[in-house]
Structures are given as structure tokens and as C-alpha cells.
């Protein structure tokens, strides 16, 4: 029996309804004992009736007490279900996508979507994003040589915001592979998430399109 089976069995024992047949039998036995021990025949009927009524009242009290205060299983037997951190990251990214994150742009002096203009001008780890002619960079944080992401509002260490030719806006988040955020979304979110590994990094594209466009433009 595994842990799930033991937990289910414990819950069934804790919340099982009382056996009314057994209770009825105990009431009848109590009435019979009262009748057998009665001092005179003339007093037997009311003694038996009183014993039966007392036993029945005890049964009702027991049933009401069980209904009002259900037995709680041992806390040690209840398995804790941890929240899904990937779903939390995915929902925060979807919220950023819906409200167009205000990320630094080229005019802010960040090294965005282009090679460093001179050796050592923009240094840092992580893949470089080359938008080509298909994508328009709108902003980026956490990139090599650029400003860091505000982790109070952005759940990943690097985020890129781009637009394709049709006007669809895409988000690309990048993180070290050992800190893979694994974002996820419900099926009805209206967005898709695509994943790509690049050496020691992992990238996710959050897009309203049916296929990724930006992941292929990342250069390890």
C-alpha cells in the first residue's frame, strides 16, 4: 500500500458513517437486559420502555456529536501539496504580455539585439538576441551589459520584448539552466509557451502565435 492508499484509508476510517444496524442491536440488547433484571412483572413494561428510550437518546446524542464535530485525520498522515511555481511564473509572464512591460530600449544605452560595438563594451553571460529583419526589439532587461530586471515585477533574470511584422508581441525569458523557471499556463490562456536550451541557459517564448519566432534568433 502506497502513501496515497494509506491516506485514503485513514480518511475513510475517520469519516465513515456510524453502523446503525449495530447501534440498533445494542439498544435492543440493553432493553432485554433491563427487562430480565426487573423486580416484578408489573413493572417490566415501563422499565423496558425507559431503558429503550435512554439508549435511543444516547444513540441520537452520539450521532449529533459526530455530525457536529467530524473526526480529523492525523496531520502526519495528510500529504502536503506544494503550489506549482511554474504556473505562478507563467501567469506573471502572461500578465506582463497583456500590459506590455516597460523595459529599457536601445536609447537607454543597453546592448540590445546587437553585437557589442567594441571588444569589452558590453560584457556578460548568456545568449545574444539577433532579431534579423523579422522582429522589432521593444525592450530588454537582464541582458549582457544591460540594466538588470526588476525582480519585484519580472519573475525571470532576463526578459526580451519584441514585435513581429504582423504586430504580434512576444516575450522571451532567459534563465540559467540550473534555475529553470519552467513557466506553464492553463489551456485557455490564449498564449503558448515554447522552450529552447542554449548551453547553460534555457529560453522560453510566450506568444499568441501557434509557433515560436524569437527563440530561433537567439545566438549561444
Primary descriptors:
single chain; 220 residues; alpha+beta; 2 domains; five-stranded antiparallel beta sheet; 4 helices; 7 strands; elongated
Largest sheet: 5 strands, antiparallel
**Discrete helix count:** 4
Q: What is the H-and-E element order?
A: HHHHEEEEEEE
Could you say how many structural domains there are in total?
2
What kind of assembly state do the chains in view correspond to? Answer: single chain
Low-confidence stretches: 65-70, 75-81, 112-123
Based on DSSP secondary structure assignment, what is the total number of beta strands? 7
Indicate the structural class.
Answer: alpha+beta
Spatial strand order of the main sheet: 2-3-4-6-5
Strand content: 15-25%
Q: What is the approximate shape?
A: elongated
**Helix content range:** 25-40%
CA-atom Rg in angstroms? 35 Å
How far is the first residue's CA from the last residue's CA?
Answer: 48 Å
Summed over residues and divided by their number, the pLDDT gives a mean of 73
Helix and strand topology:
Layout: H1 3-15, H2 20-36, H3 44-68, H4 85-98, E1 128-129, E2 135-141, E3 158-164, E4 169-176, E5 192-198, E6 201-207, E7 218-219
Antiparallel strand pairs: 1-7, 2-3, 3-4, 4-6, 5-6
Helix pairs in contact: 2-3
Describe this structure in words.
- This protein is α+β, with helices and mostly antiparallel strands and 220 residues long.
- It has two domains: 75 residues; 135 residues, no CATH class.
- Helix content is 31%, strand content 18%.
- It contains four helices and seven strands.
- The strands form two sheets. A five-stranded antiparallel β-sheet has the order 2-3-4-6-5. A two-stranded antiparallel ribbon has the order 1-7.
- α2 runs antiparallel to α3.
- The longest helix is centred in the first third of the chain and has 25 residues.
- It is elongated, with a radius of gyration of 35 Å.
- The relative contact order is 0.11.
- About 11% of the residues have low confidence.
Amino acid at each position: 500500500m502506497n502513501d496515497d492508499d494509506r491516506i485514503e484509508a485513514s480518511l475513510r476510517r475517520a469519516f465513515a458513517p456510524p453502523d446503525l444496524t449495530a447501534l440498533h442491536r445494542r439498544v435492543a440488547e440493553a432493553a432485554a437486559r433491563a427487562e430480565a433484571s426487573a423486580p416484578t412483572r408489573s413493572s417490566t413494561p415501563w422499565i423496558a420502555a425507559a431503558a429503550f428510550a435512554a439508549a435511543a437518546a444516547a444513540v441520537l446524542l452520539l450521532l449529533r456529536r459526530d455530525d457536529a464535530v467530524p473526526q480529523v485525520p492525523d496531520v502526519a498522515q495528510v500529504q502536503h501539496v506544494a503550489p506549482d511555481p511554474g504556473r505562478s511564473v507563467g501567469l506573471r509572464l502572461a500578465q506582463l504580455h497583456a500590459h506590455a512591460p516597460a523595459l529599457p530600449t536601445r536609447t537607454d544605452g543597453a546592448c540590445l539585439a546587437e553585437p557589442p560595438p567594441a571588444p569589452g563594451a558590453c560584457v556578460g553571460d548568456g545568449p545574444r538576441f539577433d532579431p534579423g529583419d523579422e522582429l522589432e526589439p521593444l525592450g530588454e532587461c537582464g541582458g549582457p551589459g544591460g540594466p538588470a530586471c526588476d525582480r519585484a515585477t519580472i519573475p525571470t533574470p532576463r526578459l526580451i520584448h519584441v514585435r513581429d511584422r504582423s504586430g504580434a508581441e512576444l516575450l522571451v525569458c532567459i534563465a540559467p539552466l540550473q534555475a529553470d523557471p519552467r513557466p506553464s499556463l492553463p489551456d485557455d490562456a490564449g498564449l503558448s509557451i515554447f522552450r529552447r536550451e542554449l548551453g547553460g541557459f534555457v529560453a522560453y517564448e510566450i506568444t499568441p502565435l501557434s509557433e515560436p519566432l524569437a527563440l530561433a534568433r537567439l545566438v549561444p
